[in-house]
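Lab notebook page, bench 4
Experiment: in silico fold of construct C2
Operator: M.H.
Input chain length: 245 residues
Purpose: comparison with the prior construct
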Amino acid sequence: MRLGIFSDVHANYEALSAVVEAYKHERVDVFYSLGDTVGYGGSPNECAEIVRAMAHKTILGNHDAAVAGRMDYSYYYEAARHALDTHASMLTRESMEWLKGLPYREKLAEYDIQLCHGSPIRLEEFEYIFAPEQARECLAIWDQLERLTLIGHSHLCKVFALDPDGVEELPASDFVLDPGRKYIVSVGSVGQPRDYDNRASYTVLDTDAWRFEFKRIEYDIETAAEKVLRADLERNFAHRLYIGV
């Protein structure tokens, strides 16, 4: 089985469209989204509709939770709060109800995989895992961890291999899972990469070979940025698309 896993679309229709097109050449059997369909970008409703139709399961991200009224985001900085309020006003009733019903976690028992937006510890707090020290916290729940935990949230491509007594960060490149280890993999961001590579990020997992693949695709950044500005959102939300940060 080939699984297509992506995350953090962030209302970037142009990036999502490029990823959808790229996936057509990957022979994917089923798709999963790890959250944050909305937030930052200029096309929240269009992206929600695509992800809703495309993904077999979608996880709740922190921006999704905020827009859907499922978390307090008063402590977010002003531009982010404004984007979330704007997106809430733009979504159709169907898309809003979809966000309100998304789960914090999904377990794919047949593959020994779990999907969540941030750390599997304290799910509702959406904690980041972008360094070995953060992944190391998961050793406390080693016995409960699936073979593979797939996350988003950081907008970075990261691979952490876990043993009962330690964590090793591996290069974020294609790899085959070692059956004796557990893994936490951050799949990067479709709509707002933050690793200084402005191409949209998406991934594929072949569960027969247990091979995980990182993919990147160029998209129409200029149009995506123009939509951010037309929606009267923070100019930096548009600028950062060009530099991938």
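Observations: The domain at 2-243 is CATH 3.60.21.10 (Purple Acid Phosphatase; chain A, domain 2). The mean pLDDT is 97.
Next step: discuss at group meeting.
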